[in-house]
Amino acid sequence: MGFFKKFLAKVTRTSSVTAADWDELYSELIASDLGATLTEAILATAKKSKSEEPIEAIREALTALLSSKPRTLAISETGLTTILVIGVNGTGKTTSVAKLAANISSAGNRVLLGAADTFRAAAVEQLQTWATRIGLTVITGKTNGEPAAVAFDSATKAKADGYQYLVIDTAGRLQNKADLMAELGKIKRVIEKVTPVNEVLLVVDATTGQNGLSQAKLFSEAVEVTGIVLTKLDGSARGGIALAIEHELDLPIKWIGTGEAIGDLTPFDPEIYITGILDAE
Ligand SMILES: Nc1nc2c(ncn2[C@@H]2O[C@H](COP(=O)(O)OP(=O)(O)O)[C@@H](O)[C@H]2O)c(=O)[nH]1
Ligand SMILES: [Mg+2]
Q: What is the pLDDT at residue 183?
């Protein structure tokens, strides 16, 4: 991060910005996974305001690009909050389900887990291992069984036993994209026969850059996504993808993943994020 650092240092030191400086900034922004459209919009703002306070102007321009939708988890009126976690394979769904459940349960809530990725036995085992460590119960089904059946069983159990939260893990791969999207729609409808789905969190791997943006588009066309969990921001990711997703899809990033451990999940704080991008404090 800190895409603007060199540029801003130059702008503050000298009164003139050369064409080469703009080119350099352009390349920096593109390399940060912001995408061309967003990069051009930000540059236009920066160019207009170079004689004033460039940092503040850019900070405002960046803030305006973020979604204004709520970032805190929706809370159910029925007493049971249900969270469906979706996304492409390997993005960090199962890990994020465990991290999120640990976070919610350590705040004093009763949390039930649903292992609706029935396509790989390893996925169920992975969630069970996490659940044992954090002391939670997981509802599972047969390998290659109906994911929607596991979702239904989880919802029924959560409601009957007075749980406050239900977090459901799903599969990221099926025969094809259409099948996956149809399956996710079915899972959601089946849960809704028992209890409302309050959050559909899409997990996006920040290291996949602009590809993460395409995934977010695809999933949000199929299901009503309510928020993003942006994982692997501890790696080589440049983090610009967060801004691109927020701006282009108006989807709020609710959580960020910053490592493989159970505690490596933090609520997304736009101010800290933008300060990180500007690296100006
Ligand atoms: N560095 C890092 N690794 C992560 C993060 N989230 C998940 N992972 C790793 O990414 C890999 C895939 O995660 P998994 O939860 O199995 O993904 P799924 O296929 O979407 O369920 C695992 O090795 C995780 O430990 C993160 O925030 N940072
Ligand atoms: Mg998984």
A: 92
